[in-house]
Specification:
The protein is α+β, with helices and mostly antiparallel strands. It has 14 helices and 22 strands.
Length: 584
C-alpha cells in the first residue's frame, strides 16, 4: 500500500504516489533553477508543466487513476534528463543545453501557423505538415481564387477546420520537432526576442503582422464558426427533446404492457406468436433494452456536448453496453425460439360429405355474417385479413381458397386440405386439426365461411385452408357474387378471371368449365383488366401454315397469295374475309 499525493500540474489534477511525487518535484525544481536567467522563464515553465500533464494523461489513460514512478521516469526521459539535480550549492545547479537534449523524433500535426501568416496562417501550417515552401501554396490559392471562387471557399473552410497552434507544444508538433525542454526553451526565447525586436522597431521580425485583410478573414471565420455552433446546438436541443419524449413514451408503453399502469396492452395478434406469458415479458424486456439503451446513450452524448462536460462515466458506458448486448441476445433467442415453432410443415386432407343437389346445379355462396363475435380487432397480415376477440382470445384468419376441378365420377365431391407448421410433424398435425372451419349446406346451396378460427390456447403456426370442389361432367355450379374473395385461380375454357366468373353458371364439359348462356359481348370473359376484347386495340400475332402474321386486333387487311384477307377480332371471335385481288 503506497501513499498518494494530489497535485495540480498545468491546470490538471493528478493523484501521484509519494515516491513518484518526490522524483517529479526534484526534476521540476532543477528545471526552474536552470531557467532562472532565461527570457520568458515563466512561460517556459508553464509550457513544460502543461506538456508533463499531457504525457501523464496519455500514460494513465482509462486503465488507472494514479501516477506511479515509471510514469515520471518516462516523462523525464522524453522531456530530457539533467545530468545533475539542483542542490544547495551553486555547482550542482549548473546545466547545459545538451543536458536536456532528447533523441526522440517528433511527429507532425496540422495546425495554422499564426507566427508566419499572411491571412490566417493556413498555407504556412500546411507547408510545415507536408514539408514545402509556403509560397507555393499561397500561389495555388491565389490562382484558385479566380476559378469560380473555389480558392476563397477552400481557404475559408480550412480556416474554420484547422486549429491554430497556440501553445509551444502545438507549435513544435506543427513543425514535427520533439516536445522536450531544449526545443521549448529555444521556441520561447525566439518568440521573446521577436517581440522585443518589434517593440524596438528593429527589422527582422519573423511574425506576420495583423493586417486588416487577416483580421477580416479571421472575423468571417469566427462568424461562420459561431453560426455553425449555434445551429448544431439548436439541432442538438431539438433532438434531445425528441429523445426524452420517445424514452418517456417507451417507458409508459412498457409499463402498460407489464400491467403496472393502465392504458396500454400487448396486441392479441402479437401474443399469438409467443408460447406463454413469460416469453411475452422477456420480449418486453428485450424491446426496452434494444430500443431504449441506444436512445439513452445518444441523449447522454448530446447533453455532454451541450453542457461541455469533460468527465466520462465508465460505469454508464460499460453498463449500457452490457445491457444492450443482453437485450440483443434475448431478442435473438426469442426469434430462434419462435422460428423453431415453424420448422416442420404438414397438411391434412379430408373429404367433406355433401348432399348431392336435386338439380344438376350446385349454388356456391359465402357466409357473410360468419363469426361476427370475433371482429373486436382486425388488420391485414401478409395479404390476409386477421381479426380477434379480446374475450375469447381467438384468432380469425381470412386465408381460405376454393378451386374447382373435374370429378372422376358422377357426384359432386368436396376435399378440404388443412396445412400448418410446428416444431415437429406431430405438433404441426395437431395445429392443423384443431382449427375451426364450418361449411353449411341447404339442398343445392353450399355455403363457405370466408375465414377460419384458431381457438383459444392454439398459436398461429401458418395455418391455411384449401378447398377442392370436384364437379362431374355435365353438371354445373353457380358462383354467388360474394364468392370473389374465396375462389382462387379456377381454370375455365374462356380463361376468364376469378372476379369475372361470379354471378354466372359454369358447366363442366370435356374441355373444362364453360359459362352457360353467357353473352361474351356483354360479359367480361377473355378480358384484360376491366375492358372487353372489342374495346382493345393492339397488335396480335397469328401463325398460319408456319408463317407468323402481325395484324391489328380490331381490323387489318393482309396479302395472302392471290387473296386480300381481311381479319377482325372482337368479342364474337375471329372473322376472316378473303377476296380475290383486283386485276389491274
Amino acid at each position: 500500500m503506497n501513499k498518494t499525493v494530489t497535485v495540480n500540474i498545468g491546470g490538471m489534477v493528478f493523484h501521484i504516489e509519494e515516491q513518484a511525487y518526490d522524483q517529479l518535484k526534484k526534476y521540476l525544481e532543477a528545471i526552474r533553477g536552470y531557467f532562472t536567467s532565461s527570457d520568458g522563464r515563466d512561460e517556459i515553465i508553464q509550457d513544460i508543466e502543461s506538456r508533463v500533464a499531457e504525457m501523464f494523461t496519455e500514460r494513465i489513460g482509462s486503465s488507472r487513476q494514479v501516477v506511479i514512478a515509471s510514469d515520471v521516469e518516462h516523462v523525464i526521459n522524453t522531456m530530457g534528463r539533467p545530468e545533475q539535480v539542483a542542490g544547495a550549492d551553486e555547482e550542482k545547479t549548473e546545466f547545459t543545453s545538451s543536458t536536456f537534449t532528447n533523441q526522440e523524433r517528433g511527429y507532425r500535426r496540422l495546425y495554422r501557423d499564426n507566427d508566419d501568416k499572411v491571412v490566417g496562417g493556413v498555407c504556412s501550417g500546411i507547408s510545415h505538415y507536408i514539408g514545402i515552401d509556403p509560397i507555393w501554396l499561397r500561389l495555388i490559392f491565389a490562382i484558385a481564387l479566380f476559378v469560380m471562387g473555389t480558392g476563397f471557399l477552400l481557404y475559408i473552410l480550412l480556416l474554420i477546420i484547422v486549429p491554430k497552434a497556440k501553445t509551444t507544444s502545438e507549435k513544435l508538433e506543427m513543425k514535427g520537432q520533439p516536445v522536450n525542454i531544449d526545443n521549448i526553451k529555444k521556441t520561447i526565447e525566439e518568440e521573446v526576442a521577436d517581440i522585443k525586436s518589434r517593440i524596438s522597431g528593429k527589422p527582422g521580425s519573423r511574425r506576420g503582422g495583423s493586417s486588416r485583410v487577416a483580421n477580416f478573414f479571421e472575423a468571417i471565420g469566427a462568424i461562420i464558426v459561431a453560426a455553425i455552433k449555434f445551429f448544431v446546438g439548436f439541432i442538438g436541443v431539438i433532438i434531445a427533446i425528441v429523445l426524452v419524449a420517445l424514452l418517456f413514451s417507451l417507458f409508459m408503453v412498457l409499463m402498460g404492457m407489464s400491467g403496472v399502469v393502465g392504458g396500454a396492452s400487448i396486441p392479441l395478434f402479437l401474443t399469438q406468436f409467443f408460447l406463454d406469458s413469460w416469453q411475452v415479458n422477456t420480449g418486453i424486456l428485450a424491446l426496452a433494452l434494444v430500443v431504449g439503451i441506444p436512445l439513452l446513450v445518444i441523449l447522454y452524448r448530446i447533453i455532454k456536448s451541450l453542457f461541455k462536460l469533460k468527465t466520462e462515466s465508465k460505469l454508464f458506458n460499460y453498463s449500457s453496453g452490457i445491457l444492450w448486448v443482453l437485450g440483443l441476445l434475448l431478442t435473438i433467442w426469442i426469434g430462434f425460439n419462435i422460428a423453431s415453432q415453424f420448422d416442420t410443415g404438414t397438411s391434412d386432407r379430408a373429404q367433406i360429405p355433401i348432399v348431392q343437389p336435386t338439380s344438376n346445379t350446385l349454388h356456391l355462396a359465402a357466409i357473410y355474417d360468419s363469426f361476427d363475435d370475433y371482429d373486436d380487432q382486425s388488420w391485414n397480415f401478409m395479404s390476409n385479413a386477421w381479426s380477434m376477440s379480446s374475450e375469447k382470445d381467438s384468432v380469425k384468419i381470412e386465408d381460405v381458397e376454393i378451386n374447382v376441378v373435374k370429378a372422376d365420377g358422377d357426384d359432386f365431391e368436396l376435399i378440404r386440405i388443412t396445412s400448418s407448421r410446428g416444431s415437429s410433424r406431430k405438433n404441426a398435425e395437431m395445429n392443423a386439426r384443431q382449427i375451426v372451419y364450418p361449411i353449411q349446406q341447404n339442398d343445392s346451396l353450399l355455403q363457405f365461411a370466408k375465414n377460419f378460427i384458431i381457438p383459444h390456447g392454439l398459436k398461429y403456426r401458418g395455418q391455411k385452408i384449401r378447398l377442392l370442389l370436384k364437379v362431374p361432367e355435365g353438371k354445373s355450379i353457380f358462383l354467388g357474387q360474394n364468392m370473389e374473395s374465396i375462389i382462387y385461380d379456377i381454370k375455365n375454357v374462356t380463361n376468364t378471371w376469378d372476379g369475372d366468373m361470379v354471378g354466372h353458371t359454369w358447366t363442366m364439359t370435356a374441355r373444362g368449365l364453360e359459362c352457360v348462356n353467357c353473352n361474351l359481348d356483354e360479359s367480361t370473359s377473355m378480358n384484360y383488366g376491366n375492358k372487353k376484347n372489342n374495346d382493345i386495340k393492339e397488335n396480335v400475332k397469328v401463325r398460319v401454315n408456319g408463317k407468323t402474321i402481325d395484324i391489328d386486333s380490331e381490323e387489318d387487311t393482309i396479302n395472302w397469295g392471290n387473296k386480300d384477307v381481311k381479319i377482325k377480332i372482337d368479342g364474337n371471335g375471329v372473322i376472316i374475309d378473303a377476296k380475290d385481288k383486283k386485276q389491274e
